[in-house]
Amino acid sequence: MKFETFQAGVWQQCYQYKSFEPAIVNHEWVWENSAINTLLAEANRALGELNAFSLIVPDIDLFIQMHVVKEAQTSSRIEGTWTGIDEAVMSEEQIEPEKRDDWREVRNYIEAVNTAIAELERLPLSNRLLKQAHEILMRGVRGEHKQPGSFRTSQNWIGGSSLADAVFIPPHPDGVPDLMGDLEAFWHNEKITVPHLIRLAISHYQFETIHPFLDGNGRIGRLMIPVYLVSHGLLAKPSLYLSDFFERNRASYYDALMRVRVANDLIHWVCFFLQGVAETAVKGRDVFREILVLRNEAEHSVMELGRRAANARQMLNLLYRKPVVSAGDIEHALGVSTPTANTMIRKFQQLGLLKEITGQQRGRVYSFDRYLKLFLS
To answer: What's the number of domains the chain is made of?
Structure first.
């Protein structure tokens, strides 16, 4: 199929509405547009640099978890869930009661990503894997009664309050299994020579167009991106997440997807997607660089603590995973007494590595502010 002559699908008349029935994607793809080749080369180069950093940073999994938290927080925000990245790393009892529903949605997303990546040890990227991630995503939150872990069996829509005024109506539910089967085959078709980033761009568009679940399609579609990259060996670790790029360019993101459906403009979408991969990979690479600098400075700082240095290094590793902590968190993680935990907190405050953020005398919470800010830029 040639990008320039691509026909995205047809509008099918149903009872009182028209649903969009997308064309299948599991076949060869070619293009003449030279801009795609340039963007593809830039995206591959940036992705390779990001992957190299993820291989050389010591104890990389400590820092990958914060990338996952950032992705969960940003992807959920696109869907109207407002949880700050500092709140996302807190425990539930530290969250104000009125914010806990949003907090649970973000934590579910974190669990869904971590589980999907772990499952790649025994399962390839597949519809089964996405259904499992969806079940986790919907557990105990808004949408928990909307067929979690299963493809939809009723019609959904995007925008508007009903099918009558919807912005876009995805395909009829009867066609969802076959369309998702075609998409899964596309992920693993070794008989075609389509570059992986092109496959991924097409796959994200196709997934969001099929909208196979009753709820959570945006988040699962974005979660699919790092899972695909790890599954196919483009990344050793799940270090690239596009939700930040999509959120910052939200109007352009939705417009690019719709332009494929209404104007067959797949080129515009692929270029937008590749630009997002390149920008996000460069940003991720730079964050890893800054992490290495901060880690070196922090390690030197805690060496000044003499006999407490061993505990201090353990505490640093805790803060890389959980940069907002209480004294109780430190007691539990390090296996130390309350007085020792409080002493460590005071020492870290003196070194500029912790900052108290509640302003309270009881139930105090402390932030590794310099580290958190690396994921806020």
So the answer is: 2
Alpha carbons within 13 A on the beta-carbon side of 72: 29
Same domain, residue pair 45 and 162: yes
Q: Kindly state whether residues 51 and 176 are assigned to the same domain.
A: yes
**Among residues 122, 269, 153, 148, which one has the least CA distance to residue 200?**
269
Q: What is the mean pLDDT of residues 286-295?
A: 93
Compute the average pLDDT of residues 166-191: 97
Q: Determine contact, residues 308/314, Cβ cutoff 8 Å.
A: no
Residue 221 CB neighbour total at 10 angstroms: 24
pLDDT at 174 over 80: yes
Q: Are residues 281 and 304 in the same domain?
A: no
Which of 248-271 are b and which e, b meaning 16 or more Cβ less than 10 Å from the residue's Cβ? ebeeebbebbbbbbeebbbbbbbb
Residue 68 parent element (H or E) = helix 60-78
Give yes or no: residues 283 and 300 share one domain: no
CA–CA distance, 294 with 314 (Å, rounded to integer): 16
> Are 104 and 150 within one domain?
yes
Bridge partners of 30? 2
d(CA 56, CA 311): 25
Whole-number Å distance between alpha carbons of 350 and 217: 46
Which residues span the domain enclosing 151? 3-287
Same domain flag for 242 and 118: yes
- Give the tens place of pLDDT for each residue, 22-55: 999 999 999 999 999 999 999 999 999 999 988 8
Q: Whole-structure pTM over 0.85, yes or no? A: yes
User: Residue 217 — pLDDT band, cuts 50, 70, 90?
Assistant: very high
Q: What is the pLDDT at residue 213?
A: 97
| pLDDT at residue 377 in the model | 65
* CATH number assigned to the domain comprising residue 221: 1.10.3290.10
